[in-house]
Amino acid sequence: MLTYGHNFDIELYSKIQKIPFSQGNCGKEKLMTQPQKSSKPSMGERLDADHVFLFECAPGISCFTQCCRDVTIVLTPYDVLRLKNALGITSGEFLDKYTLIIPKGNLLIPMAVLKMREDNKNCQLVTKDGCTVYSDRPWACRMYPLSVNEDGTFSTIADPARCMGLSQKVPSRISEWLIGQGVPVYEEMNDLFTQITSPLKAQNLDIDNPQVKKMTFMALYNIDAFREFIFKSSFMDKFVVEPLTIEKIKRSDTELLKFAFDWIKFGLFGQKLFAVKKS
């Protein structure tokens, strides 16, 4: 199995192994107006956002889709949300069919890992023509062939001997390439997720209540079940929720996930994000 390290949550998921997938011209629209820095960095070399590198992943390149097999891709809550909507299924169905849930010792939040096919170890969402959910591909897949370091710099994680995309003469400035890959919205949601995982690690909370673990996982990863909980349980009878917020979380899975983040911070850390209705 191929593995590469990437750190989207320094505190909790240090050195998580991910192999992202990229397709098409990978941020083709570039404003190459500034002087270019070295475009052939070595693996592990730290690069700033202005660095220009050479890369293209597209049909016709000999290794096309090979980085999508026998790999470990850890999914964030927002990844699951986007993927289940792209496939037109519920979050519960997606978790059952497309993920492996791996407990992390005594940590409250397990890892959701994208499940490979059992016969050939290929990603279930990839065909010979490429990624079938490309517009909604996971954050890790959007980052490939780059990794983010703890200090905010970037490194190339793809092996030039295996990734022919690094031999293509298509220049991209990292900062512009990330925008072209749709990374910013994923980073925004991942930052909100980190507001939960980092305090959990820092405070070393000893939570062994199975109901708390079940609720936390549901709120983060099973967003459709969480919606049922919010609107079909006694939740709305117990907590004050503004009418505008109710309308937002009814219409938008993204807004519902943000609501879930707040709910967890309220329940686990006692942050005053919800008010209990007076009886």
Topology, element by element:
Layout lengths: L4 E2 L9 E2 L34 E3 L19 E2 L1 H11 L3 H8 E4 L8 E4 L11 E2 L2 E2 L7 H5 L2 E3 L5 E3 L14 E3 H7 L2 H21 L6 H12 L1 H10 L2 H4 E2 L2 H9 L1 H17 L5 E2 L3
Antiparallel strand pairs: 1-2, 3-11, 4-6, 5-6, 7-8, 9-10, 12-13
Question: What's the gist of this structure?
Answer:
This protein is of the alpha+beta class.
Structure description:
- The protein is α+β, with helices and mostly antiparallel strands and 279 residues long.
- It has 2 domains: 5-183, no CATH class; 207-276, no CATH class.
- 37% of the residues lie in helices and 12% in strands.
- It has helices spanning 77-87, 91-98, 139-143, 174-180, 183-203, 210-221, 223-232, 235-238, 243-251, 253-269, and strands at 5-6, 16-17, 52-54, 74-75, 99-102, 111-114, 126-127, 130-131, 146-148, 154-156, 171-173, 239-240, 275-276.
- A 3-stranded antiparallel beta sheet has the order 4-6-5. A two-stranded antiparallel ribbon has the order 1-2.
- It is elongated, with a radius of gyration of 20 Å.
- The termini are far apart.
- The model is unreliable at 1-38 (pLDDT under 50).
